[in-house]
Amino acid sequence: MLLGEILRVALQSIRANIIRSCLTMLGIIIGVAAVITMLAAGSGAQQQIEEQIDALGANVLNITAETWFLRGVARDALTLEVEDVWALREHAQHLDAVVPTLEDRGQITYDGRNSNTRLVGTTADFADIFNYGVRYGRMFTEAEDQARQRVAVAGASIPQYLDIDNPADLLGERVFVRGIPFTVVGIFEEIGGDWNSPDQNFFLPVRTAETRVFGSEDLEDISVRVVPDVSLETAMVDVERVLRAEHRILPGMPNDFAIYDRKQFLETREEAQQTFTMLLASIAGVSLLVGGIGIMNIMLVSVTERTREIGVRMALGATRFNIMTQFLIEAVALCLLGGALGVAAGAGMAVLMSRTAGWAVHVSPESILLAVAFSLGVGLFFGLLPARRAAALDPIEALRYE
Q1: Is residue 260 situated within a structural domain?
Q2: Are 391 and 321 a contacting pair, CB within 8 Å?
Q3: Which of these, 11, 88, 82, 89, lies nearest to 334 by C-alpha position?
Q4: pLDDT for res 100
Q5: Which of 234, 255, 276 is the last residue of a domain?
Q6: What is residue 396's predicted lDDT score, i.e. its pLDDT?
């Protein structure tokens, strides 16, 4: 039998039992769809992290308050204050921007509608250091910050929280923050991200937030941008020198703050995301193995049902290789067809997740090739035993089979 004829006979056999063939492929379809969906979600999350890394740039450091110890007892009080920002601006030699973050949750009210959101006190450099664009209006200025003006910039989601259809309508309006009126001078572009996204924040000048809203100088963190051509290690030493002097930390005593390279933090998060994605894909891959076992089982049943047909083909001149090739092609065809349908189903599920849950997804060509290759491998592996059993039948015994 020629290869073309073997392929035609194999496909005819699949069409002759179309319902059973579809049920046989179901495990492969579900497995491939699960793998494609998980890889798409993981790839989308990884792409989002890479975009955040690119947005941060390679010269941004993050200073955070750390738990400190007094007489052997851990104290959780914040150790960074607004005064540290002014000290860094005045005495640090290798920084061109210092941006504090003073955070708390609070009620904002506009035209009888209110929302409990995250209030962030920061400086005019905030948008520049993190590459955030202002879609409507402008960022508040350093002069407004120094004058403790009651102005604010809203995150992209704030108009929606206040039931405003056109975000631009919020510009110039008075929004009450804990009962204190603030004029909205700008609205950020949508940034995206998880529950901690800046889209959900309401930004105030740090001096205004410190004196009029929060009544506290305690900072969550400070972000600093290093001047070009200066290494991060040199800038870290510079920042540590200034803050240790500002906090009056004696030589030999540990710091009550920590300095991080935020890009490294995001890269670590990216590696963790890749590991988690591969774990999910591996779990989904179990469905492919189950589907392969199902195909092997059905093919063994098919060999038994078609024993007499195999005997007739052998009597007409078909070799054992022809018979084995025929059944192997049937198994591979079932797996590849199931894999193709699984890819389509997985891509559809990924798009559905993106539209309904707002997840970032990305169906990469690599994931499709991986799923198809795995389907091919499953067909070859699990189809080999039934194919060899069919080829090993005795022609005379096969012709006698009823």
Answers
A1: no
A2: yes
A3: 11
A4: 92
A5: 255
A6: 72
